[in-house]
Structures are given as structure tokens and as C-alpha cells.
Amino acid sequence: MLAIIPARAGSKGVTNKNKRKFCDRPLIEWTIEAAKKSKSVTSIMVTTDDPDLQNCKFVNDKSDFLVNRPSAISSDNSPAIDYIKHALNQINEGKIFDYFCILQPTSPLRDANDIDILFDKVIESKSNCGVTVVEVPH
């Protein structure tokens, strides 16, 4: 399974949110580490328009694909399907994935086990997709 990690630069709500530190580590690092530890994830792709992340040693060393996302699909109003299609089109010929997942850096408490449990449920139920949600009190 390919893990696609979207890390857009232009967040208006929380500036530089993907690089913001949570427990002394940037949010994106938590997500990449969870993907690395997952038994279900076989490759990691970071898709970003952020030059800092494109040049970040951690991101480059830990991801299998680093995709430079065009500004045309990096705005607040850009639908997720646009960066997903762009990311999937960047995969080298001969590389085939039966599944992919989107792991947003803004969920640092998600761990490898969470990824694996969802993937197992998708396989067991013969579904073609799955999503995790958490009920909020309001």
C-alpha cells in the first residue's frame, strides 16, 4: 500500500502547520514515522509545494517519492482528488499499488497500528475504501 502524505505550504488557519512541533517533532515527522512502522505501508509519498519540506533531509531520507505539487492544485479550494491524481501520476512506470491511503500530518496521534487495523478491515470486508473518524463532543 502506498501512503500519500499531503503537506501543503499555504495553510491559512495555522501557519506552517505541517512543520509545527508536537512533542518536539514536526507534525509531518509523526506521520512519516507511523507510515514507516506500518506493516501495511510499502511505500511513502510526500506531496508538497513547500520548499522547506522539499529540501528537508528527514522528508527526503524517509520517503520513497517526493512530489513537487504545482501551485494550481495547492490552494485552499483545491479538491483532494486533484493532488491525489497528480501524485499517482508521478509514480515510476512499473510500480503498481493495489491500495493507497492518505495520511494527513495533522493527525500526529495516529500510529502504525491504527493504519494496519483500518487496512485489515478494508481487506476483510472486501471494501474498496475505508476512513477513520473520531466523534467530537460538539
Q: What does this protein look like?
A:
- The chain is α/β, with parallel strands linked by helices and 138 residues long.
- 32% of the residues lie in helices and 16% in strands.
- It is built from five helices and six strands.
- A four-stranded parallel β-sheet has the order 5-4-1-6, with helices on both faces. Strands 2-3 form a two-stranded antiparallel sheet.
- It starts with a strand and ends in a 14-residue tail after the last helix.
Poorly predicted tracts of residues:
none
Order of helices and strands: EEEHEHHEHEH
Q: Which geometry do the CA atoms define? A: globular
CA(first)-CA(last) distance: 34 Å
**What is the structural class?**
alpha/beta
Total DSSP E strands: 6
Rounded average pLDDT: 90
Strand order of the largest sheet: 5-4-1-6
Number of continuous helical runs: 5
Q: Share of helix among residues?
A: 25-40%
Strand content: 15-25%
